[in-house]
Every structure is written in structure tokens, then in C-alpha cells.
User: Which sequence fits this backbone?
């Protein structure tokens, strides 16, 4: 019997609802990283919308990879166990590295006025690539909403359904991210970009500590 | 028309005394509970604190200098507050560290530094991310409602002046900044002026994400001289090391070398938060360009780097200005002056009105802390 084209609607609407319901938590956990990054890039409204799209694209890639994994396995590994600690630790350290480099480049080059200077171009390229990577890493962040989505996606009935579940879940959470494009409103105010870079530097230290603690916990767990 | 004359330091004693009378009476009201109580020590210290505050105010009016006398009060408050606080903590708990059961019971005194971090979680989910109680209790009189109400009223009237007349932490670094006659570090990187904003953004975002007062957990330099979580594992040890390092670096060593309030200028998120309200308060500092000789005395005197050559040209300090009056005291030509927004009141009158508000708050907040800390100190040696 051919499955009804509407068979997956309940599952996807569940994904959308879950994403929208837990979007405030996603905004809180990703906003910490995203707001300083978007502010530091100093784009206008449109540019910031594009940057947000890049971030969400990276996040979607992370979700799809994870969705494929849980869909194939049909279950979710113990996320509080060694694997979860390892993923969390490595991704936190990678986030710390990204933030640190972005902050350093921004602070170092803040006085350069020429927008086409090589350093500026490199900084922009890094900013875009880094933002996509940041999206990917936050997509693998084992926060509460993510775990809830992963558990449900594992029961979706296959890798395609699990990936679709995650994609729609992302759509639900993405609505909450839209206010972040307001960061583009102050692009001409240089002190704000400077504050954003300094904020990234402090956050880099925080995430480095957090990642190290998770990895130490992983080592301790392994004994 | 604006008054361009330098401030007159030649006020007569009777006139200054008469003008100081309202503050002396206000101080008596503030010290009332202690003065009318049965504890002889508390009575004595309340009287001393009242006299101290009234005399300083009188001298401010008599000499026309603000910063010089305010500094005496502020440093006294800065050094007595931790002493009284620690004595009280040791009396109640036996140590400076907060036991976990006190955190759970909500017995942690609420500090104004937490206010910026509580806004988003309280607005979004009606959650208070601090282990304190909303209303005062017998075991914790320093409750959230008390401190927030006090902060709100003071901020609406004084704005950023909270940092020069109310903050019981700033006096410590002002004390260390006053030790040397000349600074060793003469040039401080102006980029770090944005540090308080970065710390503010970081702690507000992280607190919203983690539902915990991140600044208190990780970054508060004054934990080193007040209270901190009991050291039971690697994390609490690291926290204690961070607190001590920030305290030594920003509150002791840098102020000593630069003669600036470096913690306030480069780090304090609450100062940045108060700067947001700087324009609500009607009391301002202005630089009268026609009288200015561009000597730079005001910029050198400013303890928080709110004034530099560029801002002098613009005729007003940055929002980081905390109305301490150092620039006005340092200005030989009277170009730096007090200003009451929306009026043409002469500088001296604007200053007087500001001082009634500022010193009234100082008596309410700092004066009572000085009295209680002195009482705790005397009780300790009895």
C-alpha cells in the first residue's frame, strides 16, 4: 500500500511545535554567541539577515548530520555519558577557538579604514566561514531542546524522517532568532563593534573553561 | 544666562552651616533607629557617623570643593564596609564562605551588582536567578525588594552618581588610587574603556542562557573581601583564584599605579549599566568652552577616564561620568561646572541641589553602613 503523502504531517507539526516551544531556550543559548558575532561584523539589515542565514545554514548542517545518525541507529546514545561529554567538550573548545580568533582579528584590525584592504577581506571571509562553523557547532550542542528533538527523531522511523524532523525543528526555533537581525541597526556605531569583540574575547575564555571541564569529566568517566 | 564665574570658595560659616542643616537633620532621621536603641555602642557609632557626614557636607559647602570631601567619605565607606561585613559573616557563619545550605535557603544578601543579570530571566520566565529572598527575613534583611527599590529611586534621581555616592565597593580602589602623589602609569589604553560594556553584555547574555548570576560566580573582584562559595572542589578553587586576581589587579595594583578607579573604568558591569541611566538624571557636568584654557587638568583628575581632550572639546564628559566633582575641583578657570538639565541655574546652585540629593543618598546608604560597621568593629574588640 502506498503511504499517504500526509503521513508525515503529524510528525513534522510536532517538530515545528517543539522547535517553537523551546525556541526561547535556543535563543538564550545561541544568542550569547550570535549577538556579539553579528554586531561585530557591522553589516546593515540585509547583511545581518544574510549572516543569520549562514549561521542557520551551519546549524541545519549539524542537525542533519545528527538526524542522519540517530535515524540510522534508531536510538540516541547516552548523551550524559562519555560520548556526550566528548562531543560537548570538543565543540565548546572549538567555539572558544572561533570566538577567540574572531575577537583577536577584530580588535587588531579595528582601526583599518579601507574596506577592501587585504586584512579586512580576510576578516570578512573568516567571519562568514567562522559563522557557518559556529552554526554547525551550536547545532551539535547538547542542550535540553536538542536532546528532546533527538529522542523524538530517533523514533521517527528512518534517517530521512529524522533529518526532516530536525529540519522542521530548526524552522520552529529560527523564528526566535529573527530579533537578532536588530544587531544590524547599529552598524555605523564603531564602539558597539568594539564591545562585541571584547565580549567575544571574554566568552572565548568562558567556553574554553567549560570545554576543558567537560573533557576532564570525560577522562574521569573513562577511569 | 549661564554663570561663567569660578565657584566661590568664600562662603561664610553661618551660611554654610544653615545650608548644611537639612542634611544634618536627614542624617539624624537615618540614624534614628540606632540612636534611639538600647545598644550603647550602636548609639555612639551612629552619632559619630552622623557627625562625620554632616561635617563633610559642611566642608563641601564652605570650601566649594566636592571631590576632596566626598573622597574622605567614600574611602571610609570602602574600607569599613568589608570589615563590618566580614565580622558579621564570621559571627553568623564562622567563615566568609557561603555554605551550600545557605544558598539553598535563600539566605544570601542581595547585592546591587546582580540587578542587570536578573532582568531578562525575570522578564521572560519570572525567575529570580539569585539565592536570596524577595522580601526581608529575620536571617536575611538585605532582600531583593529592598535593594531594587533603593536602586530604582537613587538611579532615577542620581543616575550614574550612584557610583560615587552609593557604591560601597568603589571606595577601596579610590583609597588605593589616592596613596601615590603622582601616577606611574600615565597612559592607559582607551580601548579598555569599553571593557565594562563587554562584561555587562557577557554576563547578561550568559545569565539569560544559564539562569545563574554569572558575574557573582566568576568575575566579581569584591568576592575577595566579602563572601564567596565554600571551596570544596576545583571549580570553587578556580573561582576564588579569579576573584583574588581581579581584586589585586583592578582594585589594588592598577589604581595604585595609575591613580584611576580602574575597576570602575575598565571592568565594572554595574557602572556600564548605570551609564544607561546617566541621561535620566537632571544633574550633569559641563565644560564651558569659552572659559576653557585646554590645560587638561580636568582630564587628568577624572578617575574613570570619562573626560579626555575630545570630550573637553565637545563640552561634556562621557556617560561614564559619575558626578564625583573631581574635574570641577581641578579646573582653575571654572570652565568645568555643574549643570541642572533644562535650566540656566548657576553652577553653584546646580551643585547644591545635586549635593542635597547625592549626599542625602550617601547618608541613607553609606552613612548607616559606616555606623553599623564601626559598631561591629568595636564589638569585636570588646
Assistant:
Amino acid at each position: 500500500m502506498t503511504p499517504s503523502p500526509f503521513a508525515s504531517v503529524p510528525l513534522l507539526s510536532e517538530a515545528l511545535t517543539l522547535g517553537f516551544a523551546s525556541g526561547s531556550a535556543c535563543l538564550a543559548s545561541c544568542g550569547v554567541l550570535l549577538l556579539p558575532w553579528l554586531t561585530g561584523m557591522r553589516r546593515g539589515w540585509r547583511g545581518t539577515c544574510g549572516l543569520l542565514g549562514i549561521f542557520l545554514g551551519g546549524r541545519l548542517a549539524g542537525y542533519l548530520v545528527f538526524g542522519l545518525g540517530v535515524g540510522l541507529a534508531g536510538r540516541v546514545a547516552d548523551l550524559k555519558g562519555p560520548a556526550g561529554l566528548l562531543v560537548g567538550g570538543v565543540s565548546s573548545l572549538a567555539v572558544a577557538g572561533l570566538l577567540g580568533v574572531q575577537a583577536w582579528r577584530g580588535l587588531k584590525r579595528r582601526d583599518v579604514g579601507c574596506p577592501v584592504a587585504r586584512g579586512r577581506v580576510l576578516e570578512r571571509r573568516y567571519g562568514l566561514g567562522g559563522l557557518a562553523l559556529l552554526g554547525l557547532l551550536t547545532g551539535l550542542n547538547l542542550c535540553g531542546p536538542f536532546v528532546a528533538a533527538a529522542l523524538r527523531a530517533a523514533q521517527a522511523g528512518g534517517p530521512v524522517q529524522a533529518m526532516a524532523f530536525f529540519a522542521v525543528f530548526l524552522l520552529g526555533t529560527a523564528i526566535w532568532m529573527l530579533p537578532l537581525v536588530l544587531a544590524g541597526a547599529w552598524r555605523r556605531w564603531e564602539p558597539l563593534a568594539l564591545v562585541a569583540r571584547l565580549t567575544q574575547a571574554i566568552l572565548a575564555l568562558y567556553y574554553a573553561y567549560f570545554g576543558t571541564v567537560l573533557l576532564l569529566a570525560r577522562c574521569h568517566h573513562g577511569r | 544666562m549661564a554663570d561663567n564665574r569660578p565657584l566661590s570658595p568664600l562662603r561664610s560659616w553661618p551660611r554654610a552651616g544653615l545650608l548644611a542643616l537639612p542634611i544634618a537633620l536627614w542624617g539624624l532621621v537615618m540614624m534614628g533607629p540606632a540612636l534611639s536603641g538600647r545598644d550603647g555602642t550602636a548609639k555612639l557609632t551612629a552619632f559619630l557617623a552622623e557627625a562625620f557626614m554632616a561635617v563633610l557636607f559642611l566642608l563641601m559647602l564652605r570650601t566649594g570643593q566636592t571631590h576632596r570631601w566626598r573622597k574622605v567619605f567614600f574611602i571610609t565607606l570602602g574600607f569599613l564596609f568589608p570589615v563590618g561585613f566580614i565580622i558579621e559573616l564570621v559571627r553568623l557563619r564562622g567563615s566568609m564562605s557561603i555554605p551550600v545550605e545557605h544558598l539553598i535557603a535563600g539566605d544570601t544578601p542581595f547585592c546591587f551588582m546582580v540587578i542587570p543579570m536578573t532582568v531578562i530571566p525575570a522578564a521572560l520566565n519570572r525567575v529570580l536567578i539569585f539565592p536570596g529572598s524577595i522580601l526581608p527575613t529575620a536571617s536575611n534583611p538585605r532582600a531583593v525588594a529592598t535593594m531594587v527599590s533603593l536602586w530604582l529611586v537613587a538611579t532615577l534621581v542620581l543616575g550614574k552618581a550612584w557610583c560615587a555616592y552609593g557604591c560601597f565597593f568603589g571606595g577601596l580602589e579610590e583609597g588605593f588610587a589616592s596613596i601615590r602623589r603622582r601616577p606611574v602609569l600615565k597612559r592607559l589604553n582607551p580601548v579598555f574603556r569599553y571593557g565594562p560594556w563587554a562584561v555587562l553584555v557577557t554576563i547578561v547574555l550568559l545569565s539569560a542562557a544559564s539562569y545563574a548570576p554569572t558575574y557573582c560566580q566568576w568575575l566579581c573582584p569584591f568576592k575577595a573581601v566579602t563572601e564567596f562559595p565554600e571551596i570544596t572542589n576545583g571549580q570553587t578553587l578556580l573561582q576564588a583564584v579569579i576573584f583574588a586576581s581581579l581584586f589585586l589587579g583592578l582594585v589594588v595594583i592598577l589604581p595604585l599605579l595609575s591613580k584611576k578607579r580602574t575597576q570602575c573604568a575598565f571592568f565594572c558591569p554595574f557602572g556600564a549599566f548605570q551609564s544607561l541611566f546617566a541621561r535620566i538624571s537632571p544633574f550633569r557636568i559641563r565644560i564651558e568652552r569659552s572659559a576653557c584654557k585646554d590645560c587638561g587638568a580636568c582630564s587628568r583628575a577624572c578617575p574613570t577616564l570619562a573626560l579626555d581632550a575630545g570630550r573637553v572639546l565637545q563640552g561634556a564628559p562621557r556617560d561614564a561620568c559619575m558626578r564625583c566633582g573631581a574635574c570641577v575641583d581641578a579646573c582653575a578657570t571654572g570652565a568645568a561646572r555643574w549643570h541642572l538639565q533644562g535650566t540656566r541655574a548657576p553652577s553653584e546652585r546646580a551643585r547644591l541641589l545635586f549635593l542635597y540629593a547625592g549626599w542625602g543618598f550617601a547618608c541613607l546608604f553609606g552613612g548607616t553602613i559606616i555606623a553599623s560597621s564601626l559598631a561591629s568593629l568595636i564589638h569585636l574588640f570588646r
Remarks:
- Chain A touches chain B at residues 24, 28-29, 31-32, 35-36, 107, 191, 194-196, 198-199, 201-203, 206, 209, 213 (CB under 8 Å).
